[in-house]
Amino acid sequence: MQKAGLSLACGARAWRSVRKASSGMARQDPLANKVALVTASTDGIGFAIARRLARDGAHVVVSSRKQHNVDRAVAALQGEGLSVTGTVCHVGKAEDRERLVATAVNLHGGIDILISNAAVNPFFGNLMDITEEMWDKILDINVKATALMTKAVVPEMEKRGYRQGGSVVIVASIGAYFPFPGLGPYNVSKTALLGLTKNLARELDQRNIRVNCLAPGLIKTSFSKVLWMDKAREESIKKVMQIRRMGKPDDCAGIVSFLCSEDASYITGETVVVGGGTPSRL
Amino acid sequence: MQKAGLSLACGARAWRSVRKASSGMARQDPLANKVALVTASTDGIGFAIARRLARDGAHVVVSSRKQHNVDRAVAALQGEGLSVTGTVCHVGKAEDRERLVATAVNLHGGIDILISNAAVNPFFGNLMDITEEMWDKILDINVKATALMTKAVVPEMEKRGYRQGGSVVIVASIGAYFPFPGLGPYNVSKTALLGLTKNLARELDQRNIRVNCLAPGLIKTSFSKVLWMDKAREESIKKVMQIRRMGKPDDCAGIVSFLCSEDASYITGETVVVGGGTPSRL
Amino acid sequence: MQKAGLSLACGARAWRSVRKASSGMARQDPLANKVALVTASTDGIGFAIARRLARDGAHVVVSSRKQHNVDRAVAALQGEGLSVTGTVCHVGKAEDRERLVATAVNLHGGIDILISNAAVNPFFGNLMDITEEMWDKILDINVKATALMTKAVVPEMEKRGYRQGGSVVIVASIGAYFPFPGLGPYNVSKTALLGLTKNLARELDQRNIRVNCLAPGLIKTSFSKVLWMDKAREESIKKVMQIRRMGKPDDCAGIVSFLCSEDASYITGETVVVGGGTPSRL
Amino acid sequence: MQKAGLSLACGARAWRSVRKASSGMARQDPLANKVALVTASTDGIGFAIARRLARDGAHVVVSSRKQHNVDRAVAALQGEGLSVTGTVCHVGKAEDRERLVATAVNLHGGIDILISNAAVNPFFGNLMDITEEMWDKILDINVKATALMTKAVVPEMEKRGYRQGGSVVIVASIGAYFPFPGLGPYNVSKTALLGLTKNLARELDQRNIRVNCLAPGLIKTSFSKVLWMDKAREESIKKVMQIRRMGKPDDCAGIVSFLCSEDASYITGETVVVGGGTPSRL
């Protein structure tokens, strides 16, 4: 299974070193030689982030629950000349989390960056209708697995040493601040991530591992489709959210790469909203 | 078990009606004739809230996991001439939640108020040391059970009719905003409750059920003992929290009664911090 | 002028003592014997607060910029048997602030409570059209005068001694968190008050003077008329604010009285939103 | 005066075009050909931002109140081969604001970016001791002038056309959220800027002008010296702020450049805290 989960990464380092040779500045490859894990990254926001990290110089390991999605994403990104490999990972399973970590370590010798994007597809419906099983699933994957994925990665970041440090970015949602209508448990799980970010940041500060959070607004992905699946609903949610346009996955990628870069070395414990002007907090 | 879980409430209505006869104003008994459930209310903050609601005129059903604690609390409060009964309730168990609801309905004909205070005792330790089982326990009781307890109560509130409405107060913690050091999962679960409050408030608004939240600061209870168990730790946490004194359970009771009263009829979805000046949010 | 600014208060103490005699509990008159100044209190939210404080037992001094408004408010409240006097006060003028303080001290021997509600009528228009003079006026009255009014009152609160302490409530607005459309400078001045509350609370903590803040949502007053002056605009703003109904001034009064009472003695530096469920902050 | 206020910019475009020729990617010069005004930029955080914007490809106009500071900053930055000119500007004076705008327009044909960093040096002392004049000064410069500077620049941004848009970054402070002890009016003025950011963002959204805000934590500058002037005070403030190290001006520069870049095109109305893990908001 582990073998099957791995897509070929032959030549990844070579590709980057060619590109890097033509550049003299750190800024041009702000993540050069960094190794990044991105969960739930074969589509949507996660995929856009993975591509951006790789474009900015990182060796990226993508993952999601299905092998064919991993294969497709890896093929697409390798096709762009990026240093990307992948493995299947269901973040709710301890052995999958461990295999993801092992994959990166075996291939690249360590881990510097974790982007924790995995979340169950939100159920559309009232909180009063949500069953105990739905709550379990959503808290397990969106909250607990995020914490445990970080826990699995931190020892590898520590091995890099204090100076090099590490960077974690957790993907929450504007729904953490303002409930998306009809997505109660999803919203609540995302609010929890704001707190998880703060707590992890505080605890990992002394190891020079920074932990930040991205709160995307209404981004057009298959994941958020429940909110914009027909034109009427899209217009309605845009009005509620007071935005002119829905965001694109790429709108979320730059800030994540930035937060992982040296430029953000004094930023930790913070959440950045990428919402196109939708009401957020002061 | 259900029978055993019930303490005698004989005469509770009679007691109140005597007190009420001497008073002409609604303000003197702001919760007169309201029926209130309070979870985890045989000690500490929950107990102080239960007593206050009863003093303000409500019929209160206290509960916690152990029969002898329920008995002691009921005896103490009945001894003060208050309309208080009790039943054992482990909020993580569906049958216990249902029995608690049934107790109130059988005894008092319905439910107007839910104070959701139940939480597992916080584990002291690093997030990096927390096991999957600890996460399960804390998210189950602090978050999921709070949602499900509300779900169990809402149908009874609806039966009261739109005009009468209902009121839920969820007990979170200042740790929701600012991590108590060493209490990561507890803090995260409390952050989730801020979101749960918002989401429930929005969904239940059209039924005239208000949902608010209390975020106590550092309150001196057996529950928070891990933070002030010796003098050195108490002084240290007071300095971190920038407070002159620790709070008392009673410091939390007045605001909860207020939030359940007619005076708060335009307040819903809000969290009030009772923190003695500890840094909180704008 | 000072004389003219004073309305007759003859008998105020007598009236209260009669009412109090029939009551044995502190809760029935939570502000008994307290002396309260309320600025901008001859109409709307300020008037509702003044009435409530007086009903809860306080001696209240109302004020606003025009003598005939003061006279009318005092007459109305005295007509209800409340201990209320009044004086003209333009909070932007140092001599007016001093006279207001002197009035309360001369009449009642000190000051325990300040409700700072004064604000200029908001200009409707774009930030890009606001002149320097408009900014001056709005920052002067809404921010600076609030700080200076507090400064004028604090020495009188200190004279009461540490044990008795004092309580300040500043009236901000939900516009502090989420811009009311078209009311930019007003919104900004109210955001500043959230910070002023925090700063005053911290500084005055050691004198046992608590400082809290009220952030009303969309309340139906002549002041907010610009937002609901015709039916279409009212419906539009209600949709933007996601509320079922506009609030009434009385919806704001109970919480202010509560914040000034002994029950709130562990609450300082906090803002409470009274918004009927309109989006606010976590 | 205008002439005197201008430092020579000869060759600025030429320098950049040489550097740009060797680069094929937008990311290497994310602000290529943008024109940026930075107020209070001859020292500290403003200077670090100006340098970074220029390094990222922008033509930058620096400014502050004193000619010799402008000259020194321009000389230093031109010495690094950057496209930087400067002019004296006291942001509290309308004619100075207009001259600053005119300088950029005359030299570079328009304005794309405004970094509003000007603020009066904070007074150290209690709020209860602050005079009316001190309040005037601090609100005038920190709040009103920020709004008016933006107002002066927006017409030039609009001339660029909707597609090109514009970007404003306002420099607030962590003191906006959590009072720096002893710096009350400063803190309050910075809280106001959080609201100003929101209001400007909303109003300018339809013109495709984004407005964001930077809230630096404890950064080691001459400006913040009052907080760390001796070792004991530095250690004390670090403990209060729960940080391991004070920040450097450069720690603030990257995020500002990022917020002005195409990568941040879906980010508006947001404040980013650069605080090294100091408690901030969820």
TrEMBL record, chains A, B, C, D:
Gene Ontology CC: peroxisome
Alphabetic keyword roster? NADP, Oxidoreductase
Q: Does the entry feature the keyword Oxidoreductase, yes or no? A: yes
Gene Ontology MF terms:
carbonyl reductase (NADPH) activity
Q: Choose any GO biological process term that the UniProt entry carries and state it.
A: retinal metabolic process
Q: Does the keyword Flavoprotein apply?
A: no
Which InterPro entries does the annotation name? NAD(P)-bd_dom_sf (IPR036291), Sc_DH/Rdtase_CS (IPR020904), SDR_fam (IPR002347)
Task: Return the similarity comment.
Answer: Belongs to the short-chain dehydrogenases/reductases (SDR) family.
> Matching PANTHER family, A to Z?
DEHYDROGENASE/REDUCTASE (SDR FAMILY) MEMBER 4, DEHYDROGENASE_REDUCTASE SDR FAMILY MEMBER 4-RELATED
Please report the name of this protein according to its UniProt entry.
Answer: (raccoon dog) hypothetical protein
Q: Which organism is it from?
A: Nyctereutes procyonoides (Raccoon dog)
Q: What is the lineage of its organism?
A: Eukaryota, Metazoa, Chordata, Craniata, Vertebrata
